[in-house]
Amino acid sequence: MRLFILLLAFSFAASTPVSTSAQDSGGRDTTWTYGGSLGLDLSGLAILNPRVGGGTGRVGLGGLGSVSANHKGQKSFWNNQVSLQLSVQKLGRTSLSQPEGFQKNLDVLRLTSTYGYKIGGDKWYVSADLLAQSQLLETYKSNYLKPVVLDGKQDIVVSKFLSPALVQFSPGVTFKPNGHMTFQYSPVAVRFIYVADDSLALLDIHGNEVTRDANGVITDYKNHFLGLGSELVGRYENKYYNDRLSVNSTLRLFSNYLDSPSAIDVLFTNNFSIQLFKGLSLDLLGELFYDQDVKMNLDSNDNGVYGDSGDKQAPAAQLTGAFLLKYSKIF
Question: Fewest CB within 10 A of the end CB: N or C in the chain?
Fold first, then answer.
């Protein structure tokens, strides 16, 4: 479980809904709506000559943000969003053996795009959904942004931009029972994992295809993995208590017909926003991720350290949480 708490942070969020109206070739009105948000983590604590037991300094940089462009016509909709979750921190050193530099807390770059065309009444659409995900920063096994020496072992790169990258395309049907809830089902969803760097593909941790012999030695590998299956996507958006509490949740469930269809890949994202005062809100973000082909660091020896010599790498559920104090301004 990864718990990422943004405390003592100056946070700025900008929400910019802009609508433009035009007419399509059939003379029907169409509307585009644009929006965005940005929360910055600029926390810091400096201590010179700390007293014994008084702690050490810390610098945190990063933020959470997104931009969106949504289209709504009389018979169609097209929703698009690009989001980035990125944060690093640097702690003051207490010994010469302690590595120096920034550690990564969070790094997720994600694109979602959903198109739907009405086929019956006001609730049914033929649709297509696209999900693409990667990261920005190169990261080492130690979780630092540059190589360090731990326990006498040299550090290695374990991930970078497009290594890995996930792309999923899901054509199907969408059902909208009301203005707050949406269900989308695809019986022929395509899931593609790509690892651009050959040395990272050989690590066998990102879900690309790897062949091993009877002794577990890698004999062949591919930079990609292709899955074909079905996907169910559920979305819920609503506001409560005179719009002081807003809820936004998305649940994605994917089953691969070609490999262990009973093992369901899960991506569950949630955002709860509480308006404290005008323009000031407290946001709670939570995410659960599981992919049977992607390995996580497991604390096998229960010592509170992930990735040391006694731990294992295996598919597991990853939990990510964040508290964010945001100041919002519409302009």
Answer: C
